[in-house]
Design goal:
Two copies of one chain form a homodimer.
Chain A lengths: L1 H10 L1 E3 L3 E3 L7 E2 L1 H14 L7 E5 L3 H12 L3 E7 L8 E8 L4 E8 L8 E9 L3 H12 L3 E11 L4 H7 L4 E10 L5 E3 L1
Parallel strand pairs in A: 4-5, 4-8, 8-9, 9-10
Antiparallel strand pairs in A: 1-2, 5-7, 6-7, 10-11
Helix pairs in contact in A: 2-3
Amino acid sequence: MQLLEDRIIRDGKVFPGNILKVDSFLNHQIDVSLLEDIGKEFRRLFENDGVNKILTVESSGIGIACLTAQQFGVPVVFAKKSQTKNIAADVFTAKVHSYTHGRYYDIIVSKEFLKPEDRVLIIDDFLANGQALLGLLKIVKTAGAVPVGAGIVIEKGFQEGGKLIRETGLRVESLVIIDSMDEKGNVVFR
Amino acid sequence: MQLLEDRIIRDGKVFPGNILKVDSFLNHQIDVSLLEDIGKEFRRLFENDGVNKILTVESSGIGIACLTAQQFGVPVVFAKKSQTKNIAADVFTAKVHSYTHGRYYDIIVSKEFLKPEDRVLIIDDFLANGQALLGLLKIVKTAGAVPVGAGIVIEKGFQEGGKLIRETGLRVESLVIIDSMDEKGNVVFR
Protein backbone atom coordinates (compact mmCIF):
# COMPACT_ATOMS: atom_id res chain seq x y z
CA MET A 1 0.00 0.00 0.00
CA GLN A 2 1.89 2.99 -1.36
CA LEU A 3 0.19 5.56 0.88
CA LEU A 4 1.33 3.65 3.96
CA GLU A 5 4.90 3.15 2.71
CA ASP A 6 5.14 6.90 2.06
CA ARG A 7 3.82 7.64 5.53
CA ILE A 8 6.28 5.28 7.21
CA ILE A 9 9.17 6.89 5.29
CA ARG A 10 7.95 10.36 6.25
CA ASP A 11 6.86 9.91 9.88
CA GLY A 12 8.20 6.56 11.11
CA LYS A 13 11.28 6.45 13.32
CA VAL A 14 13.68 3.54 13.62
CA PHE A 15 15.29 2.85 16.99
CA PRO A 16 17.94 0.33 18.11
CA GLY A 17 16.64 -3.23 18.39
CA ASN A 18 14.64 -3.05 15.15
CA ILE A 19 11.97 -0.90 16.76
CA LEU A 20 9.84 1.06 14.33
CA LYS A 21 7.91 3.87 16.01
CA VAL A 22 4.79 4.92 14.16
CA ASP A 23 3.12 6.55 17.13
CA SER A 24 2.49 9.85 15.37
CA PHE A 25 -0.14 8.25 13.12
CA LEU A 26 -0.91 4.66 14.13
CA ASN A 27 -0.65 3.74 17.79
CA HIS A 28 -0.56 6.73 20.11
CA GLN A 29 -1.75 9.56 17.94
CA ILE A 30 -4.08 8.13 15.31
CA ASP A 31 -4.64 9.55 11.82
CA VAL A 32 -8.25 8.45 11.43
CA SER A 33 -8.41 9.28 7.71
CA LEU A 34 -5.42 6.96 7.13
CA LEU A 35 -7.29 4.28 9.10
CA GLU A 36 -10.26 4.77 6.77
CA ASP A 37 -8.02 4.01 3.80
CA ILE A 38 -6.58 1.00 5.63
CA GLY A 39 -10.11 -0.23 6.35
CA LYS A 40 -11.08 0.12 2.69
CA GLU A 41 -8.01 -1.87 1.62
CA PHE A 42 -8.80 -4.71 4.04
CA ARG A 43 -12.36 -4.69 2.75
CA ARG A 44 -11.09 -4.99 -0.82
CA LEU A 45 -8.77 -7.86 0.14
CA PHE A 46 -11.38 -9.86 2.08
CA GLU A 47 -14.45 -8.76 0.14
CA ASN A 48 -15.70 -12.23 -0.79
CA ASP A 49 -14.97 -14.08 2.42
CA GLY A 50 -18.24 -13.63 4.25
CA VAL A 51 -16.58 -11.82 7.17
CA ASN A 52 -19.12 -11.17 9.92
CA LYS A 53 -16.80 -10.24 12.80
CA ILE A 54 -13.50 -8.40 13.25
CA LEU A 55 -11.24 -9.60 16.07
CA THR A 56 -8.27 -7.72 17.48
CA VAL A 57 -6.42 -7.28 20.75
CA GLU A 58 -6.21 -4.16 22.92
CA SER A 59 -5.03 -1.47 22.65
CA SER A 60 -3.44 -0.41 19.40
CA GLY A 61 -5.52 -2.76 17.25
CA ILE A 62 -8.85 -1.26 18.31
CA GLY A 63 -8.90 1.87 16.15
CA ILE A 64 -7.81 -0.04 13.03
CA ALA A 65 -10.37 -2.77 13.74
CA CYS A 66 -13.20 -0.24 14.17
CA LEU A 67 -12.48 1.60 10.93
CA THR A 68 -12.19 -1.74 9.13
CA ALA A 69 -15.42 -3.05 10.65
CA GLN A 70 -17.15 0.08 9.38
CA GLN A 71 -16.29 -0.93 5.82
CA PHE A 72 -17.66 -4.44 6.36
CA GLY A 73 -20.70 -3.37 8.39
CA VAL A 74 -19.88 -5.89 11.14
CA PRO A 75 -19.02 -5.67 14.85
CA VAL A 76 -15.55 -5.65 16.42
CA VAL A 77 -14.50 -7.85 19.32
CA PHE A 78 -11.29 -6.95 21.07
CA ALA A 79 -9.43 -9.45 23.22
CA LYS A 80 -8.42 -8.13 26.61
CA LYS A 81 -4.98 -8.57 28.08
CA SER A 82 -4.89 -9.91 31.60
CA GLN A 83 -2.27 -10.80 34.14
CA THR A 84 -4.70 -12.07 36.74
CA LYS A 85 -4.30 -15.73 37.55
CA ASN A 86 -7.99 -16.53 37.84
CA ILE A 87 -9.57 -16.92 34.44
CA ALA A 88 -13.36 -17.17 34.49
CA ALA A 89 -15.14 -20.14 32.93
CA ASP A 90 -17.10 -18.07 30.46
CA VAL A 91 -14.10 -16.87 28.45
CA PHE A 92 -11.78 -18.19 25.76
CA THR A 93 -8.18 -17.61 26.64
CA ALA A 94 -4.69 -17.97 25.16
CA LYS A 95 -1.28 -17.45 26.67
CA VAL A 96 0.92 -15.00 24.77
CA HIS A 97 4.65 -14.51 25.15
CA SER A 98 5.72 -10.89 24.90
CA TYR A 99 9.30 -10.62 23.64
CA THR A 100 9.19 -6.87 24.25
CA HIS A 101 8.38 -7.21 27.95
CA GLY A 102 9.95 -10.61 28.53
CA ARG A 103 6.89 -12.18 30.11
CA TYR A 104 3.68 -14.05 29.45
CA TYR A 105 0.18 -12.63 29.58
CA ASP A 106 -3.26 -13.99 28.84
CA ILE A 107 -5.61 -12.68 26.20
CA ILE A 108 -9.28 -13.20 26.87
CA VAL A 109 -12.50 -13.12 24.86
CA SER A 110 -15.93 -13.69 26.36
CA LYS A 111 -17.58 -16.85 24.98
CA GLU A 112 -20.68 -14.77 24.27
CA PHE A 113 -18.96 -12.94 21.43
CA LEU A 114 -17.38 -15.72 19.37
CA LYS A 115 -19.61 -18.48 18.02
CA PRO A 116 -19.19 -21.37 15.56
CA GLU A 117 -21.19 -19.44 12.95
CA ASP A 118 -18.68 -16.56 12.97
CA ARG A 119 -16.32 -15.92 10.07
CA VAL A 120 -13.59 -13.90 11.67
CA LEU A 121 -11.08 -11.47 10.19
CA ILE A 122 -8.24 -10.87 12.65
CA ILE A 123 -6.76 -7.35 12.52
CA ASP A 124 -3.57 -6.04 14.13
CA ASP A 125 -1.16 -3.16 13.72
CA PHE A 126 2.10 -5.17 13.69
CA LEU A 127 3.19 -8.69 12.84
CA ALA A 128 6.70 -9.35 14.18
CA ASN A 129 7.22 -12.57 16.10
CA GLY A 130 3.57 -13.52 15.64
CA GLN A 131 2.81 -14.49 19.23
CA ALA A 132 -0.26 -12.26 19.69
CA LEU A 133 -1.68 -13.38 16.35
CA LEU A 134 -1.14 -17.05 17.25
CA GLY A 135 -3.05 -16.41 20.47
CA LEU A 136 -5.96 -14.78 18.63
CA LEU A 137 -6.00 -17.64 16.12
CA LYS A 138 -6.11 -20.18 18.93
CA ILE A 139 -9.10 -18.39 20.45
CA VAL A 140 -10.98 -18.33 17.14
CA LYS A 141 -10.35 -22.06 16.66
CA THR A 142 -11.32 -22.90 20.24
CA ALA A 143 -14.61 -21.07 19.66
CA GLY A 144 -15.20 -23.27 16.62
CA ALA A 145 -15.40 -20.14 14.45
CA VAL A 146 -13.78 -19.81 11.02
CA PRO A 147 -10.62 -17.67 10.80
CA VAL A 148 -10.87 -16.27 7.26
CA GLY A 149 -7.56 -14.45 7.53
CA ALA A 150 -5.42 -11.83 9.18
CA GLY A 151 -5.15 -8.23 8.05
CA ILE A 152 -1.90 -6.67 9.25
CA VAL A 153 -0.88 -3.06 8.80
CA ILE A 154 2.91 -3.50 9.11
CA GLU A 155 4.73 -6.83 8.90
CA LYS A 156 8.38 -7.02 9.92
CA GLY A 157 9.45 -9.43 7.20
CA PHE A 158 12.81 -10.03 8.83
CA GLN A 159 11.19 -11.62 11.91
CA GLU A 160 9.72 -15.09 11.98
CA GLY A 161 6.04 -14.28 12.69
CA GLY A 162 4.83 -14.10 9.09
CA LYS A 163 6.34 -17.48 8.23
CA LEU A 164 5.03 -19.03 11.45
CA ILE A 165 1.47 -17.84 10.88
CA ARG A 166 1.35 -18.68 7.16
CA GLU A 167 2.54 -22.23 7.99
CA THR A 168 -0.65 -22.71 10.03
CA GLY A 169 -2.53 -22.25 6.75
CA LEU A 170 -4.00 -18.87 7.70
CA ARG A 171 -4.19 -16.31 4.93
CA VAL A 172 -2.17 -13.26 5.97
CA GLU A 173 -2.48 -9.94 4.12
CA SER A 174 0.03 -7.33 5.25
CA LEU A 175 -0.40 -3.85 3.80
CA VAL A 176 3.35 -3.30 3.96
CA ILE A 177 6.17 -5.76 4.61
CA ILE A 178 9.49 -4.36 5.78
CA ASP A 179 12.51 -6.41 4.73
CA SER A 180 15.09 -4.32 6.54
CA MET A 181 15.52 -1.00 8.26
CA ASP A 182 18.24 0.94 10.03
CA GLU A 183 18.61 3.91 12.35
CA LYS A 184 19.60 6.21 9.49
CA GLY A 185 15.98 5.97 8.41
CA ASN A 186 16.53 3.55 5.53
CA VAL A 187 13.48 1.32 5.31
CA VAL A 188 13.35 -1.35 2.59
CA PHE A 189 9.90 -2.60 1.66
CA ARG A 190 9.30 -5.95 -0.02
CA MET B 1 -29.81 10.05 23.47
CA GLN B 2 -32.82 7.80 23.03
CA LEU B 3 -31.08 5.21 20.85
CA LEU B 4 -28.49 4.66 23.57
CA GLU B 5 -31.04 4.48 26.41
CA ASP B 6 -32.95 1.85 24.44
CA ARG B 7 -29.78 -0.12 23.84
CA ILE B 8 -28.80 -0.03 27.52
CA ILE B 9 -32.28 -1.27 28.50
CA ARG B 10 -32.11 -4.03 25.91
CA ASP B 11 -28.51 -5.25 26.21
CA GLY B 12 -27.01 -3.78 29.38
CA LYS B 13 -26.65 -5.93 32.50
CA VAL B 14 -26.58 -4.64 36.06
CA PHE B 15 -24.39 -6.47 38.58
CA PRO B 16 -23.90 -6.01 42.34
CA GLY B 17 -21.85 -2.96 43.26
CA ASN B 18 -23.55 -0.69 40.72
CA ILE B 19 -21.71 -2.29 37.84
CA LEU B 20 -23.33 -1.78 34.44
CA LYS B 21 -22.00 -4.19 31.83
CA VAL B 22 -22.36 -2.95 28.29
CA ASP B 23 -19.72 -5.22 26.84
CA SER B 24 -21.96 -6.62 24.11
CA PHE B 25 -21.96 -3.27 22.27
CA LEU B 26 -19.55 -0.77 23.82
CA ASN B 27 -16.40 -2.09 25.45
CA HIS B 28 -15.61 -5.68 24.52
CA GLN B 29 -17.77 -6.32 21.50
CA ILE B 30 -18.28 -2.99 19.71
CA ASP B 31 -21.30 -2.04 17.61
CA VAL B 32 -19.51 0.25 15.19
CA SER B 33 -22.72 1.65 13.68
CA LEU B 34 -23.83 2.73 17.17
CA LEU B 35 -20.42 4.38 17.59
CA GLU B 36 -21.04 6.27 14.35
CA ASP B 37 -24.26 7.67 15.80
CA ILE B 38 -22.44 8.55 19.03
CA GLY B 39 -19.74 10.32 17.03
CA LYS B 40 -22.35 12.33 15.13
CA GLU B 41 -24.00 13.38 18.38
CA PHE B 42 -20.69 14.55 19.89
CA ARG B 43 -20.02 16.43 16.67
CA ARG B 44 -23.41 18.15 16.95
CA LEU B 45 -22.78 19.08 20.60
CA PHE B 46 -19.26 20.48 20.05
CA GLU B 47 -19.73 21.70 16.49
CA ASN B 48 -18.71 25.32 17.08
CA ASP B 49 -15.83 24.78 19.50
CA GLY B 50 -12.94 24.57 17.05
CA VAL B 51 -11.99 21.07 18.20
CA ASN B 52 -8.77 19.96 16.49
CA LYS B 53 -7.88 16.93 18.60
CA ILE B 54 -9.73 14.12 20.40
CA LEU B 55 -8.13 12.76 23.57
CA THR B 56 -9.08 9.53 25.32
CA VAL B 57 -7.46 6.82 27.44
CA GLU B 58 -6.89 3.20 26.48
CA SER B 59 -8.59 0.83 25.92
CA SER B 60 -12.35 1.21 25.82
CA GLY B 61 -12.28 4.89 24.85
CA ILE B 62 -10.34 4.30 21.64
CA GLY B 63 -13.13 3.07 19.37
CA ILE B 64 -15.51 5.82 20.48
CA ALA B 65 -12.79 8.44 20.05
CA CYS B 66 -11.93 7.21 16.53
CA LEU B 67 -15.53 7.28 15.31
CA THR B 68 -15.98 10.72 16.86
CA ALA B 69 -12.75 12.03 15.33
CA GLN B 70 -14.01 10.86 11.97
CA GLN B 71 -16.95 13.26 12.28
CA PHE B 72 -14.66 16.17 13.19
CA GLY B 73 -11.92 15.30 10.67
CA VAL B 74 -9.24 15.50 13.38
CA PRO B 75 -6.72 13.04 14.89
CA VAL B 76 -7.12 11.00 18.08
CA VAL B 77 -4.54 10.80 20.83
CA PHE B 78 -4.99 8.06 23.40
CA ALA B 79 -3.27 8.21 26.77
CA LYS B 80 -1.48 5.03 27.74
CA LYS B 81 -1.79 3.40 31.14
CA SER B 82 1.46 2.54 32.81
CA GLN B 83 2.58 0.98 36.03
CA THR B 84 6.28 1.41 35.40
CA LYS B 85 8.01 3.66 37.89
CA ASN B 86 10.25 5.43 35.41
CA ILE B 87 8.40 8.08 33.48
CA ALA B 88 10.35 9.53 30.56
CA ALA B 89 10.95 13.29 30.32
CA ASP B 90 9.19 13.65 26.99
CA VAL B 91 5.72 12.76 28.27
CA PHE B 92 2.90 14.42 30.16
CA THR B 93 1.68 12.27 32.99
CA ALA B 94 -1.07 12.13 35.61
CA LYS B 95 -1.66 9.75 38.49
CA VAL B 96 -5.09 8.14 38.48
CA HIS B 97 -6.75 6.25 41.31
CA SER B 98 -8.70 3.22 40.17
CA TYR B 99 -11.54 2.46 42.59
CA THR B 100 -12.26 -0.73 40.64
CA HIS B 101 -8.78 -2.17 41.09
CA GLY B 102 -7.91 -0.38 44.33
CA ARG B 103 -4.63 1.05 43.12
CA TYR B 104 -2.97 3.97 41.36
CA TYR B 105 -1.68 3.98 37.83
CA ASP B 106 -0.14 6.62 35.58
CA ILE B 107 -1.59 7.82 32.33
CA ILE B 108 0.89 9.12 29.81
CA VAL B 109 0.78 11.22 26.66
CA SER B 110 3.84 12.05 24.56
CA LYS B 111 4.58 15.78 24.58
CA GLU B 112 4.79 15.62 20.79
CA PHE B 113 1.05 15.14 20.49
CA LEU B 114 -0.42 17.85 22.73
CA LYS B 115 0.50 21.48 22.04
CA PRO B 116 -0.69 24.87 23.30
CA GLU B 117 -2.50 25.45 20.00
CA ASP B 118 -4.67 22.36 20.50
CA ARG B 119 -8.37 22.60 21.31
CA VAL B 120 -9.08 19.24 22.86
CA LEU B 121 -12.31 17.29 23.20
CA ILE B 122 -11.90 14.54 25.81
CA ILE B 123 -13.92 11.38 25.09
CA ASP B 124 -14.61 8.42 27.38
CA ASP B 125 -17.09 5.59 27.68
CA PHE B 126 -17.98 6.03 31.38
CA LEU B 127 -17.99 8.83 33.92
CA ALA B 128 -18.38 7.43 37.44
CA ASN B 129 -15.95 8.73 40.08
CA GLY B 130 -14.25 10.92 37.50
CA GLN B 131 -10.65 10.05 38.32
CA ALA B 132 -9.57 9.12 34.78
CA LEU B 133 -11.21 12.27 33.37
CA LEU B 134 -9.48 14.43 35.99
CA GLY B 135 -6.19 12.87 34.93
CA LEU B 136 -6.83 13.59 31.26
CA LEU B 137 -7.86 17.16 32.10
CA LYS B 138 -4.66 17.66 34.09
CA ILE B 139 -2.61 16.49 31.09
CA VAL B 140 -4.40 18.88 28.71
CA LYS B 141 -3.81 21.78 31.09
CA THR B 142 -0.15 20.85 31.66
CA ALA B 143 0.32 20.87 27.89
CA GLY B 144 -1.10 24.39 27.80
CA ALA B 145 -3.82 23.20 25.42
CA VAL B 146 -7.49 24.22 25.69
CA PRO B 147 -9.91 21.60 27.04
CA VAL B 148 -13.13 22.48 25.19
CA GLY B 149 -15.13 19.81 26.97
CA ALA B 150 -15.73 16.16 27.72
CA GLY B 151 -18.00 13.88 25.72
CA ILE B 152 -19.12 10.94 27.83
CA VAL B 153 -21.22 8.04 26.60
CA ILE B 154 -22.64 6.91 29.97
CA GLU B 155 -22.55 8.96 33.17
CA LYS B 156 -23.41 7.31 36.47
CA GLY B 157 -25.30 10.26 37.92
CA PHE B 158 -25.38 8.71 41.39
CA GLN B 159 -21.59 8.84 41.69
CA GLU B 160 -19.63 11.99 42.37
CA GLY B 161 -17.56 12.25 39.17
CA GLY B 162 -19.95 14.44 37.17
CA LYS B 163 -20.21 17.00 39.97
CA LEU B 164 -16.45 16.94 40.56
CA ILE B 165 -15.61 17.55 36.92
CA ARG B 166 -18.25 20.22 36.32
CA GLU B 167 -16.94 22.09 39.39
CA THR B 168 -13.60 22.48 37.59
CA GLY B 169 -15.49 24.52 34.98
CA LEU B 170 -15.18 21.91 32.24
CA ARG B 171 -18.21 21.48 30.02
CA VAL B 172 -19.39 17.87 30.28
CA GLU B 173 -21.87 16.40 27.80
CA SER B 174 -23.07 12.92 28.71
CA LEU B 175 -25.21 11.14 26.14
CA VAL B 176 -27.08 9.34 28.92
CA ILE B 177 -27.07 9.92 32.67
CA ILE B 178 -28.20 7.08 34.89
CA ASP B 179 -29.79 8.18 38.16
CA SER B 180 -30.28 4.71 39.58
CA MET B 181 -30.24 1.07 38.61
CA ASP B 182 -30.77 -2.30 40.19
CA GLU B 183 -30.09 -5.95 39.49
CA LYS B 184 -33.65 -6.57 38.34
CA GLY B 185 -32.71 -4.56 35.28
CA ASN B 186 -34.48 -1.34 36.30
CA VAL B 187 -32.44 1.55 34.97
CA VAL B 188 -33.66 5.10 35.60
CA PHE B 189 -32.36 7.78 33.24
CA ARG B 190 -32.26 11.48 34.10
